[in-house]
Amino acid sequence: MVSERDNGLLPLKREYNQVWHGFDRGQVLQYLDHVEMNLRRVMADRDAAMAQASTMSRELENARAEIRRLHMRVEELKKPPERVEDLDERMQRTVDLANSRAEEIVGRAEVAAEEWAKSTDVSSKLRVRYQKLIETLESHAKALDDEHRNALDATKNEVRKLTTEAAQRRTALDIEAERKRRTIEHDFDTTMASQRAALEKHVADQKTASKNQAERRIADATAEAKRLVDEATARAKRLVADATADAERREDEANRKVQRLNSLSDQALTRLRKANDVLTRSHSALTPLREESVVDLTGAAPIEPPTNPVAGKPVATFAPPTKVVQPIKASEPEQAKADTALPPTKPAHEPVEPASAKQK
Question: Which residues form a coiled coil (predicted)?
Answer without folding.
Answer: 46-80, 127-165, 204-267
